[in-house]
Amino acid sequence: MIEIMDLHKSFGAHRVLSGVNLKIETGETMVIIGRSGCGKSVLLKHIIGIIKPNAGKILIDGVNVFEIGEDEINHFRMQIGMLFQGAALFDSLTVKENVGFSLYEHTHLPLNEIDQRVKERLRLVGLGGIEDLMPSELSGGMKKRVGLARAICTEPKIILYDEPTTGLDPIMADAINDLIIRMRERLRITSIVVTHDMTSAYKVGNRIAMLYNGKIVGVGTPDEIRNSKDPLIQQFITGSAHGPITIEESRDHYLVGNNNNHNET
Q: pTM above 0.90?
């Protein structure tokens, strides 16, 4: 379904992506791991078409994302749902208005049909009956689930998850992992999950890819990644401070990556 081909992206003098190549099959969950600031979120923004690369292309069902015309871009983005790190709910809108936002803004569906779909999606993530609450009344885990309900409300073919378990306690994080698996199995959705949480990566991923120095340095099933002999992969998945990835290098990438994400936002 998704083919990333020789993707390059720089912000000023800082090179973030240096020839990323990756294929994601229809219906699978691909997990992307890597250091903070290494370009994982930047890669997601390329897939959804809100950042354009310096070189390379991304094909979704054979169509180059970066050649889609302005008159077709909204229809294209309706086929991709995204769960943001902090859920990214609109504080001034109710849960119902947040979940149905894209349908209210970009479709001509009757309001009662949108409301019904919102209720169904909230029930699917275990949050039936909270349509009239405000985001300030929700816990962190509830916000994540509302964000997921919004991501699936347009009935997308693809869902992008940006750090879906960050900031959650272990029990709620596992509940989110179960929801990711359920979305794939019940809705046959293709998923890309960016995470630092290896427990989550091993549980939800059909395959795992590691991004390092702007390139994919390894791809495999959870067992293949767990047993990889590559010192970069082993250091990252075990969380060791000792190895080819230095603490100073991680700090520098984190600082530059955060600045890039802020600028792009």
A: no
- Judged by DSSP in three states, 259 sits in helix
* 23-37 residue pLDDT tens: 999 999 999 999 888
Q: Can you tell me the distance from the alpha carbon of 25 to that of 61, in angstroms, rounded to the nearest whole number?
A: 10
CA contacts within 13 A on the Cβ side of 140: 12
d(CA 127, CA 3): 34
Alpha carbons 130 and 93: distance in angstroms, whole number: 13
Residue with tokens 């909270």: 130
Beta strands in 12-164 (DSSP E): 14-24, 29-33, 55-60, 63-64, 80-83, 158-162
Nearest partner of 107 among 153, 161, 163, 167, judged by Cα: 153
CA 214 to chain CA centroid, Å, is 18
**pLDDT per position as a tens digit, 77-135:** 888 988 887 778 999 999 999 999 988 888 889 999 999 999 999 998 888 889 999 99
Does residue 206 contact residue 192 with C-beta atoms inside 8 Å? Answer: no
**CA 41/CA 263 separation, integer angstroms:** 13
Residue where the block lists tokens 């992008």 = 160
C-alpha dihedral (163, 45, 131, 115), degrees to nearest 10: -140
Cα distance between residue 144 and residue 154, in whole Å? 17
The torsion angles phi and psi of 240, rounded to 5 degrees, stand at -85, 140
- Gap between the Cα atoms of 195 and 201, Å rounded: 7
**Bridge-based pairing state of the strands 55-60 and 63-64:** antiparallel
